[in-house]
Amino acid sequence: MLGIQPDGGPPVSPLPLPPTPRALSADMSGFDNNATDSPPHRKHSFRLSFKRREGARREQRDSLGGPVPAKFICATSIKPHTLNPKWNEKFKFDIDEINTDTFHLDIWDHDDESCVLDAVSRLNEVRGVRGLGRFFKQVCQSARQGSQDDFLGSVNIPIADIPSTGLECWFKLEARSHRSTVQGRIRLKLWLSTRDGQTSDLGDGIGERDNSAEVNKIEQLHTVFMQHEIATHEPSWTWNGELPGPALTILHQMAVQADLLELHCVIARFVAAAKLNRNTPLDPKFMHRLLTEVEKQWNSSSPEQLTRELEQWLAEAMNGFVERSLNQIRRHRDIFPALHPPSLIRLEFLLRCLGLLGSMRAFRVVCPFNKGVRGEVVNALRKGSITWGQNILRDGQTLPNPLAHFVTILTADIQVGQSYYHSLFDNTNGIQYFTIIYKQFDAMIGDEVYSRMELGQVPGVRLNLAHYTVLEGESDSIDVKPFDLFLALQEFSQLKRFLSAQPQPPEKPLALAQYHLWFIPTFERWMMVSKAKALQRIRAAIRLDAICEGDRVVRYSSSSVDTASVLVNIKEFWKNMMWPDEETGIMLESQLVDVVCATAMHYCDLIHTALADSGYYEQQGPFRCSDDMCVTVNNLEYVRCSLAGFRSDENPLEEIADNLLETSLAHMENRCERILSKLAPLMQTSLQKAVFHLAWSPDSLPANQAIVPLLEYLDSHLGALNSALLPKNFNRALRFIWKTVLSEMSRQMETGDESEKPSNFHKRLYEALQLLVDFFHAESQGLSMDCLHSDDFWRIEQRLQFHKTETLRLIDMFYMNRLREQIMANLPGPYGAVVVRAYFNHDSLCVEVLHARDIVPLDPNGFSDPFVIIELFPRRVFAHCLEQQTNVHKRTLNPIFDECFEFSVTLEQCQTEGAMICFTVMDHDVLTANDFGGEAFLALGTIPGVADYSSSVENFHGLKQIELPLMQQRDKNNPILQILELRVNDKLAQDFVRKQKARSIQ
What we know:
- The chain is of the alpha+beta class.
- The chain has six domains: about 85-125 and about 130-190, Immunoglobulin-like; about 210-370, no CATH class; about 380-465 and about 480-495, no CATH class; about 525-555 and about 565-675, Tetracycline Repressor, domain 2, CATH 1.10.357.50; about 680-805, Up-down Bundle (Methane Monooxygenase Hydroxylase, Chain G, domain 1), CATH 1.20.58.1100; about 825-1000, C2 domain (Immunoglobulin-like, Sandwich), CATH 2.60.40.
- Helix content is about 50%, strand content about 10%.
- Strands 3-1-5-6 form a four-stranded antiparallel sheet, with no helix packed on it.
- A hairpin with a 7-residue loop joins β16 (about 915-925) and β17 (about 930-940).
- α12 packs antiparallel against α13 and α16 runs parallel beside α18 (about 580-615).
- The longest helix is centred in the middle third of the chain and has 32 residues, at about 580-615.
């Protein structure tokens, strides 16, 4: 229940005093039963009351003697079962004294339809002010009864505190006394206005009449106020759309006096702004706010309240705004620069305005034939991009390469669009800006390039195999303009990775999808010309060759630098091309590799021939570091490294190209090796003398002193080479010199009679060999250990080790080597096999020879008379065990022996390193010596009872047969036998050598 009471109450909040109004309008928005935004759930409803202050007007009304009109007190509808009711109801009251009257509102919880609501329905029966007082008393008494309405709170607002422009906010509910407990708040919208004549009926206060003229007046007044504000801002779009207080008061009073809806007011405001925006750009954020208000009022009002004239008026304004906005979209690059943040904000809100228009009910109603704002924005982008691109192309015609410049500018524009514009269009309207612009530019560039190629205006590019446009007949020059265009097109084409991945309807392929195919003839021609020019430049560089020196004394010449730069430039050129097609790229890359290989090989042959013609290979010792040799080999290595740079693990070459490159690198490597291989022969005489001094020095001279002349010679010459050669070449030279030193040591080791050599001859050479390894390794600065430990090194090191070893140990080592050969031998062997079994039990070694098969025929009749000799090695361990043999079997190659033998040995003897059983197959001859048919070895550590000595074996039952392939001595130069043979005064050594030579293959 709400009304006007004459008593001025305390103001809720001090507000500026408006011009004196004559009417009050109240709009009930909602109720909150808590002081916070989230009230607890209690069940209430409300009614309203008002009081009139005694005074002249009250006496005047009492004198009338009639009922008090219902317009002085009003009640809202009841909202059942809610703690947050929403009424959205409008009421109007006449004000007598603006400075003293108070707006009063009561809220009640409705419990019974016959209590307070019935009392309110009898308002027209009240006569006079005194009767009205009694009426309120009855209402309060009925509210205090058990089943009557409950009082929830009241609001008192002085009329003087309400501005004419209105007041809309939440008001806290008040109690009637200190004993009352109330909570909650209610949202009210209040405004004052002056009116002529009588007030309209309660409700919306709008009659069924055409108010187009009043709306037009409001629009014209808005225009005047806006023009005044715009005149004070430069540029115009910096005005945020706010009008001063007096202007708002005037507009509000005109709207109230014209009895206009809020919808009429917001439409008038938008139309005024839209008309101004056609010639004077306004802030898009302000326009977006106006459109939002129009849509809000349209949705909350009845569309029938607008006349056809007003709808057409609104449609013209909206269409004009859309047309103006689309024009700005077409010119967005100039109007909204990407690098100007305020402009991007304006563009964003302009797009938001267009997006809002596309979804507004008001726009669909008043503009039913509009094709769709989003589609028009897309078309505006396309048309604007075409116009902008054409201007760029026209302005660049005077440049040296206009087409490449055109593509470059468009590429830069699309990159800027991707970074700045794309997200704005996508987030506001779902428009894929980049995709639209890229496809438009792609079509423009494709058409322009193709048409110019047809006319021959693109230098170096041809469309078919019939003709070249520029390069034909120009073998000594290359026009770089086609490559500028290629790189520009490549950069543009690479941006297609940002195209939208959303499903699209079938479209024609991109115009530049195969752009690279246009340039294949250009590349082929370029490589032909480049090869000829590279060879020509190399020959000129060699004629003008000059020695260069870096920070060190490394010797090289300017021709290598020129050649390497040619190769590097070709490599960088191809790398920058980044050819997009793998299939054609392999073909072009193969041709490119052919060009660089031919260039490098040509240089290699020229400088090597020049060195050979200087007599380098005919010179004799002694060695001296030659500048010609150092420069030539360094030049070769320098160019070889540049050529090797064409091989990459990340991008391997095609097989044919890789093979060609490998062949060229190997050829240059061989040239370097051949040049440096001359160093060793030049040093050989001096090295021979130094090694001889080392080997044949008196016993009193230790190895570290005897080797001094050799190390001094090497140090002086290797130091000069190290300074003059590149590291790779110095390493090559070291390998050749190391091989020569090893050869001289081997020569001295094999020279002379063993009886004539000093007693520590081999020991000193062995120590000297270790010293040389350290010298050539040079703490990882020289040759690597893998390179030093070559086959020649291991052969010399082994022989020196053997020379230091006593005879019995060498014999043991010989049989251990034979055992290793036995283990590595495969079945079936070329000399047959023998099948045996063996086990150890209680200090007894039992051996069973079962049979042999496929032994070698040693008699003229094609057979043999075989028997087997069983021996235990090493002899120093099993000296007490004599050899044993099987019976002889006549005329057979597959004898069956089935004989057992026993040897008295201990477990410790069987576990000795190198302990084995030797089975020797012999051919029995009566008149001559028995012939050797082969031998086999069985390690004692592998037989039962020794391998698993914790278990016992009683007999051969259940033991696995062991088939051993027979072997013969094939190495006539066995180092152990050679060393033992040199020990002429050692009978054991001579007997062993004689026995083994009898068993070797002749």
